[in-house]
Amino acid sequence: MTNATSNTLSKDGFWTRVRLALRGRTAAPVAPLPHSGGFEAALSRGWYRAAKASAPLTLMLIEIDELADYFTAYGAEAADACFAEVQETLATVLPRTDDACVAVSPGRFGVVLPELPPHVAQPVAAAMAQAVRRLGRPHKASHAGTVTVSMGLAVVMPEGTLDGRLVDSAQQALRRAQRRGIGRLEVVDLRPRQERQAA
């Protein structure tokens, strides 16, 4: 589970975008979500499970902070080792044995949590961020001095077929978190107001 990144992702394309961004002295753009079978399969399973139980579905998108700067400072090989270690660390904090942390793109991970409302998922996210910090993996290009992650969390009450707004909202939340700094979490709740108030 934790070493699937190299099998599902085109890392060469990612590093090409990073190099081009650095050459232009701009920040590397947030990579769009690819059609990764692992991530899409986990999301579909979570959607079905939550819909069947008439329960909320929480999606976390997690990305290593200052990713392009890490690559510049340490190189691709060290970056790949960092990705693997962070993914393994995130997986240790998952609340249930059938939950999974799936590689979405280099340095970005998806966590699908069916039947887990945001007031439960947010402490899980905080524990994940703390676990990554405790690794103490050096990141000299970050003012934290060590590797950290930012997170976007979106929650929905699934009905019918998978709604793309869930992933879009998690991505938007992640971007907002990254704009605020490093090690941040932003949440989007797509549930109707009455369901949020009843939770």
Features:
disordered N terminus; two-stranded antiparallel ribbon; 19% strand; alpha+beta; 50% helix; five-stranded mixed β-sheet; 199 residues; elongated
Task: Compose a concise summary of this entry.
Keywords: Nucleotidyltransferase, Transferase. This protein has 8 helices and 7 strands; from the N terminus they run H-H-H-E-H-H-E-E-H-E-E-E-H-E-H.
Spatial ordering of strands, largest sheet: 2-3-1-6-7
Q: What order do the SSEs take from the amino end to the carboxyl end, as H and E?
A: HHHEHHEEHEEEHEH
Strand content range: 15-25%
Q: Please summarize the sheet with the most strands.
A: 5 strands, mixed
Structural class: alpha+beta
Number of domains: 1
CATH class: Alpha Beta
* Total strand segments: 7
Second-tier CATH architecture: 2-Layer Sandwich
Can you identify the CATH superfamily?
Reverse transcriptase/Diguanylate cyclase domain
InterPro entries: GGDEF_dom (IPR000160), Nucleotide_cyclase (IPR029787), Rev_trsase/Diguanyl_cyclase (IPR043128)
Pfam family, one: GGDEF
Enzyme class: transferase
Protein name: Diguanylate cyclase domain-containing protein
Task: Give an overview of the whole structure.
The chain is an alpha+beta fold and 199 residues long. It has a single domain, classed as Alpha-Beta Plaits. It contains 8 helices and 7 strands, in the order αααβααββαβββαβα. The chain has helices at 5-8, 11-23, 37-53, 67-74, 76-92, 118-135, 165-180, 193-198; strands at residues 57-64, 101-105, 108-114, 138-139, 145-146, 149-156, 185-189. The strands form 2 sheets. It has a 5-stranded mixed sheet. Strands 4-5 form a two-stranded antiparallel ribbon. Strand 6 (149-156), helix 7 (165-180) and strand 7 form a beta-alpha-beta unit. Helix 4 (67-74) crosses helix 5 and helix 5 (76-92) packs across helix 6. It comes from Devosia albogilva.
